[in-house]
Write a structure and sequence with these properties.
Layout lengths: L1 E6 L22 H13 L3 E6 L8 H8 L3 E4 L9 H12 L8 H8 L1 H10 L7 E4 L21 E5 L13 E2 L2 H15 L3 E5 L3 E10 L3 H9 L10 E3 L3 E3 L13 H6 L7 E2 L6 H17 L4 E10 L5 E8 L10 H8 L4 H15 L7
Parallel strand pairs: 1-2, 1-3
Antiparallel strand pairs: 4-7, 5-6, 5-7, 8-9, 8-10, 8-12, 10-11, 12-13
Helix pairs in contact: 1-11, 3-4, 7-9
Length: 365
């Protein structure tokens, strides 16, 4: 197949005075794009990178019309707007071009953490109780209060619509009302968006990636009884990965933006497969598959969990990422693929195969 690789490079991102230092931390590097193109070529495909921007000088629409791809490999994060990760897929649907990964509604939903959590709670899936703050002095919701009517600390504060742990630092954990108000106010000023405050789950952080799709019957079962049904064979579960937070004392048990952006493949400490009991591993797989289903993900995704050390490692869903990072040897999904014996080339081409099968595309490779 002829495949157009669509992404936003950090070096091409707009800049302005006063922007936050982590503004573009979720964008990609040329190294990642070169690796994806090479992996696709190793799978027998023709592949070419296009900056995912319809504006000059990139002119994506005109360039795609000239290239005439059979499939677009989409990892575009976008630059502006609450639905920025859904913007390029919307353009592709207007052009009637098939693409890998989740569709417009899912990408817009998953970027908004509070909306995603509301979907999870509706389906009975475990996620920490939360409140969204529009201003630092908003009244406290009952969801954050204990039986005695007082706030249940510690709480965790982060932006509602960012990736790569943007805004997440050791100061995100607050233990007093004053700290809560101060941190919410600072994040509103810095990120100009509502701020999510949720109960902080003290414990291990584990992420589960998956590649593939669900047949409709299995999808219905999972949505109705998410934690008791087996994972469909058509959804390949990658090895669970635990971030070895004990290796970074300065992070105080938090998978911070600093860890995600400053570590390298050589300095990133992790456990993969994570040391889990068979029962807990299966529970995480079933929960991850259920989240995949109820948010209507396609082809690939990664679900992040916290295991409550005060409640027998009970898993809580933090979020789902339908556009997981694909930096070789470093991104969580790539390490998890290695954990089940997949090469990077196999991972990339498995995503393509899942998308091609789902959309009934004919491949000559």
């Amino acid at each position: 197949m002829r495949i157009a690789v669509l992404a936003n490079l950090k070096i091409n991102a707009p800049r302005w005075e006063g922007m936050s230092e982590d503004q573009w931390d979720d964008l990609d590097s040329p190294k990642t794009i070169d690796s994806i193109v090479a992996a696709l070529q190793s799978g027998g495909h023709e592949a070419q990178f296009f900056e995912a921007n319809i504006l000059p000088p990139h002119n994506l629409i005109e360039r795609l019309e000239a290239y005439q791809p059979d499939l677009c490999f989409n990892i575009a994060e976008g630059h502006f707007g609450n639905g920025r990760e859904a913007q390029i897929p919307a353009v592709l649907e207007m052009l009637r071009l098939p693409y890998t990964g989740s569709q417009v509604l899912t990408l817009a939903l998953a970027l908004d953490k509070p909306l995603t959590k509301r979907v999870l709670l509706y389906h009975g899936l475990p996620t920490p109780e939360f409140q969204v703050f529009e201003s630092a002095d908003d009244p406290i919701d009952a969801d954050l209060l204990g039986p005695n009517g007082e706030l249940c600390f510690p709480l965790f504060v982060k932006p509602s619509r960012e990736g790569t742990s943007m805004g997440v630092s050791t100061e995100s954990v607050v233990r007093t009302v004053a700290e809560l108000r101060d941190q919410v106010g600072r994040q509103i000023q810095l990120y100009n968006q509502p701020i999510l405050v949720e109960h902080y789950i003290e414990g291990r952080e584990v992420t589960v990636g998956m590649v593939g799709n669900m047949p409709p019957t299995a999808a219905r079962r999972l949505s109705e009884h998410s934690v008791v049904q087996p994972v469909p064979d058509s959804l390949a579960m990658l090895a669970p990965l635990e971030v070895d937070l004990d290796a970074y004392q300065y992070a105080e048990g938090i998978y911070t933006n600093q860890l995600k952006t400053e570590l390298t493949a050589e300095t990133f400490q992790y456990l993969c497969p994570a040391p889990l009991s068979p029962e807990l591993e299966q529970e995480l797989y079933m929960l991850a598959a259920a989240v995949f289903r109820v948010t209507d993900c396609k082809d690939v995704a990664r679900v992040d969990f916290r295991l409550d050390r005060h409640n027998h490692d009970k898993p809580y869903i933090l979020e789902i990422n339908p556009l997981p990072g694909l930096t070789p040897r470093f991104s969580d999904l790539c390490i998890q693929a290695t954990g089940i014996g997949w090469t990077y080339e196999r991972l990339i081409n498995a995503i393509v195969a899942a998308a091609a099968t789902r959309q009934e595309l004919v491949s000559d490779s």
